[in-house]
Amino acid sequence: MTKPFNHVAIIGLGLIGGSIGLATQAALPEARVTAFDASEDVRDRARQIGLAHEIMDTPAAAVDGADLVVLCVPVRAMGEAAAALKGALKPDAIISDVGSCKASVAEAITAALPGQTVIPAHPVAGTEHSGPDAGFAELFRNRWCILTPADDAPAAAVGQLSDFWAAMGARVEIMEAKHHDLVLAVTSHVPHLIAYTIVGTASDLEDVTRGEVIKYSAGGFRDFTRIAASDPTMWRDVFLSNKEAVLEVLQRFSEDLSALQRAIRWGDGDTLFDRFTETRAVRRSIIEEGQDDARPDFGRRDHSGAAKDQPPKN
Ligand SMILES: NC(=O)c1ccc[n+]([C@@H]2O[C@H](COP(=O)([O-])OP(=O)(O)OC[C@H]3O[C@@H](n4cnc5c(N)ncnc54)[C@H](O)[C@@H]3O)[C@@H](O)[C@H]2O)c1
Ligand SMILES: O=C(O)C(=O)C[C@]1(C(=O)O)C=C[C@@H](O)C=C1
């Protein structure tokens, strides 16, 4: 176990920043937690619900004296958020982030803060909700947090950040940034694009079906609508920042979709049956790994902060 951080500063107090604020106060009671958000409304709300010990009105005040700074803003705002900290940081402060893609974010933060130790991270945990009221302390429990340090990153700093995320309840993995971006394009980014597409297509078809699409939506379509309700700013930024990997995975996806289309056209039941058998096995292995708690009702909070539902047992 490395030395825990004495003072954690959070920039951006939405779902992820707010959850880190709550989880840090719960898991590391000795640490001081300060924060800043660019929106005055968010800062006011964050003070009311206690997302940090102190919410400051400037980014410089929030990071003053901090030994860990976590940037929790949309990925294309990371460079600007980092630049706003210039001159206000302790020289030995570790700068991290939670962005959903890593190569472009690492580049932007490192360019904005030359000479500072930057260790990018991505907690692979979230919901379709955003904003300060969406945060909850248990979000990271038993979920992966992927760190993508540069080759020359100080091992002690990587160890300290790993221990911080372990204290948040996460399982920590180290990965190369470009590899992270390809893996997440497959497991998170393209699935979101597919959800946005099918829900958009169904909504366009409403003209033809006169309200029946929404009325009879159940099961599969409902699951897609949950994902397609995710924050537009966050996801616009993810697709534009992880363009190369997303386009590569989409190319493969459209070839596979064409193969299924062809099987349907030619009545090739074996191809369909074999594919669906393979995909069922993927689902079962995810459940066996215990990675199935991001489902629709798990982790939602009512206004008192109490959990509404627990994950159903499989
Ligand atoms: N939502 C998820 O499921 C999820 C999961 C893992 C990682 N992430 C990543 O976490 C980051 C934050 O996502 P979120 O879901 O918490 O978003 P969110 O919309 O809930 O919160 C983002 C906050 O950042 C603030 N902000 C924007 N620009 C700023 C700036 N320059 N300085 C200070 N504050 C600024 C906004 O006012 C907002 O309150 C993103 O990079 C996203 O890719 C999201
Ligand atoms: O559970 C959800 O709603 C999510 O979308 C979470 C999810 C994901 O795709 O797994 C979304 C983006 C993040 O970068 C990490 C996690």
Automatic annotation (TrEMBL):
It comes from the Bacteria. Residues 6-294 form the Prephenate/arogenate dehydrogenase domain. InterPro entries: 6-PGluconate_DH-like_C_sf, NAD(P)-bd_dom_sf, PDH_C, PDH_N, Preph/Arog_dehydrog, Prephen_DH. One of its GO terms (molecular function) is NAD+ binding. It catalyses: prephenate + NAD(+) = 3-(4-hydroxyphenyl)pyruvate + CO2 + NADH. GO terms for biological process: tyrosine biosynthetic process. Its EC number is 1.3.1.12. Keywords: Amino-acid biosynthesis, Aromatic amino acid biosynthesis, NAD, Oxidoreductase, Tyrosine biosynthesis. Residues 287-314 are annotated as: Disordered. Pfam families: PDH_C, PDH_N. Pathway: Amino-acid biosynthesis; L-tyrosine biosynthesis; (4-hydroxyphenyl)pyruvate from prephenate (NAD(+) route): step 1/1. PROSITE patterns: PDH_ADH. Gene3D superfamilies: 6-phosphogluconate dehydrogenase C-terminal like domain, NAD(P)-binding Rossmann-like Domain. The keyword Amino-acid biosynthesis applies. The keyword Cytoplasm does not apply. Belongs to the prephenate/arogenate dehydrogenase family. This is prephenate dehydrogenase. It comes from Croceicoccus mobilis.
